[in-house]
Design a protein that fits this description.
Layout lengths: L3 H4 L2 H11 L6 H13 L5 H13 L2 H15 L4 H13 L3 H14 L4 H13 L3 H15 L3 H5 L4 H7 L2 H9 L7
Length: 180
Protein backbone atom coordinates (compact mmCIF):
# COMPACT_ATOMS: atom_id res chain seq x y z
CA UNK A 1 0.00 0.00 0.00
CA UNK A 2 1.22 3.45 -0.90
CA UNK A 3 1.72 6.19 1.68
CA UNK A 4 -1.34 8.49 1.86
CA UNK A 5 0.47 11.54 0.51
CA UNK A 6 1.48 9.60 -2.65
CA UNK A 7 -2.03 8.22 -3.16
CA UNK A 8 -3.32 11.68 -3.96
CA UNK A 9 -0.28 12.88 -5.89
CA UNK A 10 -1.47 12.97 -9.51
CA UNK A 11 2.05 13.13 -10.98
CA UNK A 12 3.22 10.14 -8.94
CA UNK A 13 0.12 8.08 -9.75
CA UNK A 14 0.47 8.82 -13.47
CA UNK A 15 4.17 7.94 -13.45
CA UNK A 16 3.39 4.72 -11.58
CA UNK A 17 0.86 3.72 -14.25
CA UNK A 18 3.26 4.52 -17.06
CA UNK A 19 5.96 2.32 -15.51
CA UNK A 20 3.51 -0.54 -14.99
CA UNK A 21 2.18 -0.24 -18.57
CA UNK A 22 5.11 -2.40 -19.67
CA UNK A 23 3.02 -5.31 -18.36
CA UNK A 24 -0.58 -4.17 -18.95
CA UNK A 25 -2.02 -7.57 -18.08
CA UNK A 26 -0.25 -7.80 -14.72
CA UNK A 27 -2.05 -7.72 -11.40
CA UNK A 28 0.12 -4.77 -10.32
CA UNK A 29 -1.04 -2.71 -13.32
CA UNK A 30 -4.70 -3.59 -12.70
CA UNK A 31 -4.34 -2.62 -9.04
CA UNK A 32 -2.60 0.68 -9.84
CA UNK A 33 -5.26 1.50 -12.44
CA UNK A 34 -8.09 0.79 -9.99
CA UNK A 35 -6.42 2.88 -7.27
CA UNK A 36 -5.86 5.80 -9.65
CA UNK A 37 -9.48 5.63 -10.83
CA UNK A 38 -10.69 5.60 -7.23
CA UNK A 39 -8.57 8.59 -6.18
CA UNK A 40 -9.34 10.64 -9.29
CA UNK A 41 -12.88 9.37 -9.88
CA UNK A 42 -14.15 12.57 -11.47
CA UNK A 43 -11.19 12.91 -13.86
CA UNK A 44 -10.21 10.91 -16.95
CA UNK A 45 -6.54 10.64 -15.88
CA UNK A 46 -6.34 6.87 -15.37
CA UNK A 47 -8.43 6.02 -18.40
CA UNK A 48 -6.45 8.34 -20.66
CA UNK A 49 -3.27 6.61 -19.56
CA UNK A 50 -4.87 3.17 -19.97
CA UNK A 51 -5.85 3.75 -23.60
CA UNK A 52 -2.44 2.77 -25.00
CA UNK A 53 -2.11 -0.34 -22.86
CA UNK A 54 -5.63 -1.50 -23.68
CA UNK A 55 -5.00 -0.97 -27.39
CA UNK A 56 -1.97 -3.27 -27.17
CA UNK A 57 -4.08 -5.90 -25.42
CA UNK A 58 -6.60 -5.85 -28.28
CA UNK A 59 -9.42 -6.23 -25.74
CA UNK A 60 -12.15 -4.33 -27.57
CA UNK A 61 -14.73 -4.48 -24.75
CA UNK A 62 -12.40 -3.15 -22.03
CA UNK A 63 -11.10 -0.54 -24.47
CA UNK A 64 -14.63 0.64 -25.31
CA UNK A 65 -15.49 0.82 -21.61
CA UNK A 66 -12.41 2.99 -21.03
CA UNK A 67 -13.23 5.27 -23.99
CA UNK A 68 -16.83 5.56 -22.80
CA UNK A 69 -15.66 6.78 -19.37
CA UNK A 70 -13.25 9.29 -20.92
CA UNK A 71 -15.93 10.54 -23.31
CA UNK A 72 -18.41 11.03 -20.46
CA UNK A 73 -15.87 12.97 -18.40
CA UNK A 74 -14.88 15.13 -21.35
CA UNK A 75 -18.50 15.91 -22.16
CA UNK A 76 -18.75 14.10 -25.48
CA UNK A 77 -16.81 12.22 -28.12
CA UNK A 78 -14.00 13.67 -30.15
CA UNK A 79 -12.37 12.53 -33.37
CA UNK A 80 -9.25 11.15 -31.69
CA UNK A 81 -11.19 8.92 -29.28
CA UNK A 82 -13.44 7.78 -32.11
CA UNK A 83 -10.38 6.93 -34.19
CA UNK A 84 -8.90 5.00 -31.27
CA UNK A 85 -12.05 2.86 -31.16
CA UNK A 86 -11.45 2.01 -34.81
CA UNK A 87 -7.74 1.37 -34.37
CA UNK A 88 -8.24 -1.13 -31.56
CA UNK A 89 -10.61 -3.08 -33.81
CA UNK A 90 -8.10 -2.93 -36.64
CA UNK A 91 -5.41 -4.30 -34.31
CA UNK A 92 -7.81 -6.97 -33.08
CA UNK A 93 -8.27 -8.17 -36.66
CA UNK A 94 -11.82 -6.94 -37.27
CA UNK A 95 -11.42 -4.28 -39.97
CA UNK A 96 -15.13 -4.37 -40.88
CA UNK A 97 -15.89 -3.21 -37.32
CA UNK A 98 -13.10 -0.61 -37.47
CA UNK A 99 -14.32 1.16 -40.58
CA UNK A 100 -17.35 3.05 -39.17
CA UNK A 101 -15.23 4.51 -36.37
CA UNK A 102 -12.40 5.54 -38.69
CA UNK A 103 -14.82 7.13 -41.16
CA UNK A 104 -16.65 8.94 -38.34
CA UNK A 105 -13.33 10.40 -37.14
CA UNK A 106 -12.65 11.67 -40.67
CA UNK A 107 -16.18 13.07 -40.95
CA UNK A 108 -15.79 14.92 -37.65
CA UNK A 109 -12.27 16.20 -38.47
CA UNK A 110 -11.67 16.19 -42.25
CA UNK A 111 -8.06 17.39 -41.83
CA UNK A 112 -7.18 14.68 -39.28
CA UNK A 113 -4.20 13.10 -41.05
CA UNK A 114 -3.89 10.21 -38.58
CA UNK A 115 -7.47 9.16 -39.35
CA UNK A 116 -6.88 9.49 -43.09
CA UNK A 117 -3.84 7.21 -42.90
CA UNK A 118 -5.81 4.77 -40.73
CA UNK A 119 -8.42 4.55 -43.47
CA UNK A 120 -5.70 3.90 -46.04
CA UNK A 121 -4.25 1.09 -43.88
CA UNK A 122 -7.75 -0.31 -43.37
CA UNK A 123 -8.45 -0.39 -47.11
CA UNK A 124 -5.06 -1.98 -47.77
CA UNK A 125 -5.67 -4.67 -45.13
CA UNK A 126 -9.00 -5.42 -46.76
CA UNK A 127 -7.20 -5.62 -50.12
CA UNK A 128 -9.63 -3.03 -51.47
CA UNK A 129 -6.96 -1.83 -53.87
CA UNK A 130 -9.14 0.31 -56.16
CA UNK A 131 -10.82 2.04 -53.22
CA UNK A 132 -7.44 2.57 -51.55
CA UNK A 133 -6.16 4.27 -54.70
CA UNK A 134 -9.25 6.50 -54.84
CA UNK A 135 -8.61 7.42 -51.21
CA UNK A 136 -4.95 8.12 -52.04
CA UNK A 137 -6.10 10.72 -54.57
CA UNK A 138 -8.00 12.52 -51.81
CA UNK A 139 -4.98 12.25 -49.52
CA UNK A 140 -2.74 13.84 -52.17
CA UNK A 141 -5.13 16.78 -52.36
CA UNK A 142 -5.59 17.13 -48.59
CA UNK A 143 -2.21 16.20 -47.21
CA UNK A 144 0.17 16.52 -50.17
CA UNK A 145 0.89 12.78 -49.95
CA UNK A 146 3.54 11.44 -52.30
CA UNK A 147 3.56 7.88 -53.68
CA UNK A 148 6.99 7.35 -52.15
CA UNK A 149 5.45 7.70 -48.70
CA UNK A 150 3.33 4.62 -49.38
CA UNK A 151 6.26 2.71 -50.89
CA UNK A 152 8.50 3.57 -47.94
CA UNK A 153 5.96 2.54 -45.30
CA UNK A 154 6.90 -0.25 -42.92
CA UNK A 155 3.22 -1.27 -42.73
CA UNK A 156 2.80 -4.69 -44.41
CA UNK A 157 -0.61 -3.84 -45.84
CA UNK A 158 0.68 -0.61 -47.39
CA UNK A 159 3.67 -2.48 -48.81
CA UNK A 160 1.22 -4.95 -50.37
CA UNK A 161 -0.78 -2.04 -51.80
CA UNK A 162 2.38 -0.51 -53.29
CA UNK A 163 3.10 -3.79 -55.07
CA UNK A 164 -0.27 -3.92 -56.87
CA UNK A 165 -0.97 -3.02 -60.49
CA UNK A 166 -3.74 -0.71 -59.21
CA UNK A 167 -1.19 1.31 -57.26
CA UNK A 168 1.16 1.53 -60.25
CA UNK A 169 -1.74 2.74 -62.44
CA UNK A 170 -2.62 5.28 -59.76
CA UNK A 171 1.00 6.51 -59.57
CA UNK A 172 1.21 6.89 -63.35
CA UNK A 173 -2.02 8.93 -63.31
CA UNK A 174 -0.60 11.46 -60.83
CA UNK A 175 0.99 14.68 -62.04
CA UNK A 176 4.74 14.86 -61.63
CA UNK A 177 5.80 16.25 -58.28
CA UNK A 178 7.27 19.76 -58.46
CA UNK A 179 11.02 19.89 -57.85
CA UNK A 180 12.04 20.76 -54.32
Amino acid sequence: TLPLRLQSDRLFMMARLQVLMAEPTSAAYAKALAETRAVFASEPVADLLAIDALMLEKDVQRFDDCIRRVTERLGGPDAYLTLCRGLVRLRAGTPEEARPFIEKAIQDEPDFALAAFAKLRLLARQKAWAEACEWLTQMVDRFNLRPDAVRASSDEALAALAATPEFERWVSSQPAAPPR
